[in-house]
Amino acid sequence: MLTGYGFASLVSEQFRETEWNRIRKNDYIQSLPNRQILWRKIGKDKIAIAVNGIPTVVPLYPNIEAVIKTINSGEIQSVKRILEDSNSLVNKEDSREDSDEGILGLLNTLLGNGGLKIVQ
Question: Which of 61, 68, 71, 80 has the greatest number of CB atoms lying within 10 Å of its CB?
Fold first, then answer.
């Protein structure tokens, strides 16, 4: 079951207080304990991701599996480094800007769903 692992529901007050689109390139992030990011490919161009019992579907970027593996390590990660590493896997025909925007969108979704925190 993709959504059942590590579920700790957000109460409505927590959900309203979550700041979406808050992660920036110069930030450091870390996954929360017991909040493993689960994923499964859906067809050729999408991936289902679940964290904290909340699923979402995002485009299947060529680099997204490596990004998830990096985040799931539980170590503090530089967003800038995640973007640099993921761009090394992007095909030359793909736009680096699209990839950066997509990965930042994914990170912010994971933040909003209670799976990541920004480390000061």
Answer: 71
Phi, psi of 61 (to 5 degrees): -70, 150
Tokens of 109: 């979704």
The amino acid at 4? G
- 3-class DSSP assignment, residue 74: coil
| Domain-embedded: residue 26 | yes
Q: What is the pLDDT of residues 31-74, one digit of tens each?
A: 988 888 999 999 888 999 999 888 999 888 777 888 999 999 99
Q: Are 51 and 114 in contact (CB under 8 A)?
A: yes
pTM over 0.70: yes
Residue 25 lies in a domain: yes
Tell me whether residue 46 is in a domain. yes
For residue 63 the two structure tokens come to 């680099």
**Amino acid code (one letter) for 52:** N
Place of tokens 């170590």: 75
Tell me if 1 is assigned to some domain. no
Length of the chain: 120
